[in-house]
Write a structure and sequence with these properties.
Oligomer: single chain
Shape: globular
Helix content: over 70%
Largest sheet: 2 strands, antiparallel
CATH architecture: Up-down Bundle
Number of domains: 1
Strand order of the largest sheet: 1-2
CATH class: Mainly Alpha
Length: 334
Amino acid sequence: MGIDLPLVWAAIVAFGIALYVALDGFDLGIAILFPLVRGRADRDVMMNSVAPVWDGNETWLVLGGAALFGAFPLAYAVLLPALYLPIMVMLLALVFRGVAFEFRFKATRSRAVWDWAFAAGSTVATFVQGVALGAFIQGFPVVDRQYAGGAFDWATPFSLFTGAALVAGYAALGCGWLIMRTEGALQERCYRLMGPFAAALLAAIAIVSLWTPLLHPQIAQRWFALPNLLLFAPVPLLVAAAAVLLWRAIAARRERLPFLLTLALFFLGYTGLAISLWPNVVPPSLSIWDAAAPPQSQSFLLVGVLLLLPVILGYTAYSYWVFRGKVRPGAGYH
């Protein structure tokens, strides 16, 4: 029995996107929190908490995009024109954010300008990522294996809502990271901010979970028809359990659990999305097998990925291990 290469590549792409959301999500979230933290020393600590790892976190965005292009070229050819404007805005915002990150540490009189540039670039990048996600959930018209929609079809109330929801979600991740990596007044400030952002994230998960089946009757049928209703019931139940544990962790001033539980909420939301859209790589009608590259191409690319993926994972894990622990004022990147 041969290997189902499109299935393997779908897992690789999904893995890359999930790691990007988990890793780059919290450092984007830290920038989103910048306007809510005023002190220069506290902002320095916030940036120093991610300075050694933030650019490496974006490796997973590159991996996910490259894997999509190589393994599912038809999906890439449909998604790129459908989401051209959001993708371009996201890339420009990420570049702007990276420039602001470096310039802020060297600036003196213009530091406040780069603070706002850092926050704005990260917030815009996060928002358009959420917009692209909402547009992806809604689906894209495909005729003769080409995108058949307009340049602004992505701009809908649903996609704009998911954009705002992702901003709140990344901010919650950023709070959880700073709770884990800082101490004193800054840590206490993040505990207070965590509650509202976590509540917004949970509300967004609930709204999207109800809104998505209303957009697609087939998704409603998948979730609410027996026996799937019983089979998939653990997902919302685990979301509820994680929410309760998160609230208790914040109240008890636990340091690691808020971040880990927020990651769990993202993972559960990602799982629910996979259940809703499987096996489509371009909803609502283009499956991973329809969009797959020839088996020879996928096999050739798979060899390279299997060699490189452990190296990237090892380097990432080593980086986080080396720069573990609390970040204090006056220490770190300058």
